[in-house]
Amino acid sequence: DQQVKQNSPSLSVQEGRISILNCDYTNSMFDYFLWYKKYPAEGPTFLISISSIKDKNEDGRFTVFLNKSAKHLSLHIVPSQPGDSAVYFCAASDSTSGTYKYIFGTGTRLKVLA
Amino acid sequence: DSGVTQTPKHLITATGQRVTLRCSPRSGDLSVYWYQQSLDQGLQFLIQYYNGEERAKGNILERFSAQQFPDLHSELNLSSLELGDSALYFCASSPSVGSGYTFGSGTRLTVV
Q: Any CB–CB contact under 8 A between B77 and chain A?
């Protein structure tokens, strides 16, 4: 049972435009969410997080939106740059579990076209 | 350099063999997590250790085991290897409380 789903395996966007990556989850106990970026031959690197007490978190060109009622989060990248081309994973955790175990989605491959 | 060190980077071995993957967490991080990424799959959680003790278990096969040593480094042991075990194995670490993991660069295991 995939508790965290990224239904778009890939996305292509023109440089300078907005990239929107989506993520859905099924476990209502999840209350902390992360986005990671992964380049080939490297480990995932942390991008941005959001807690369930918020519905938006911004960090420079990256904004994450959380819709708890829909169990949906999205990552917006504005403006998109060629260096943003990578695989993006969303991850969710139930902080009350005490383990900080994150469940990851299958990833979305973003290609930003110059 | 993320501060999480995984060795070896690449490993090629035959079916039925046993291998050990090693992870040194970031300085000060007490938790170590192991994840498996197979082709076109997301990161599958295998197991977590906190300060030497197993804290959480995911979809880890009985052929796989792990431990965390007093110096906090961790080893993932994979035995009776099958072709389907070929994957990227990532280790990540976090402090006792944290906003996310720091991942190592992974070990690519190829079983032939």
A: no
Backbone φ, ψ for residue A100 (5° rounding): 55, 30
Asked if the model's pLDDT at residue A106 lies above 80, the reply is yes
Confirm if A42 and A87 have CB atoms less than 8 A apart: no
Please list every residue in chain A whose beta carbon sits closer than 8 Å to the beta carbon of residue B4.
43
Which B positions 13-52 lie with beta carbon below 8 A of chain A? 31, 33, 35, 40-45, 48, 50
The string of pLDDT tens digits covering residues B29-87 is 988 999 999 876 788 999 999 899 998 888 899 999 999 999 999 999 999 999 999 99
Q: Which residues contact A21 (CB under 8 A, 6 or more apart)?
A: A6, A8, A11, A35, A74, A75, A77, A88, A90, A108, A110
Amino acid identity at B109:
L
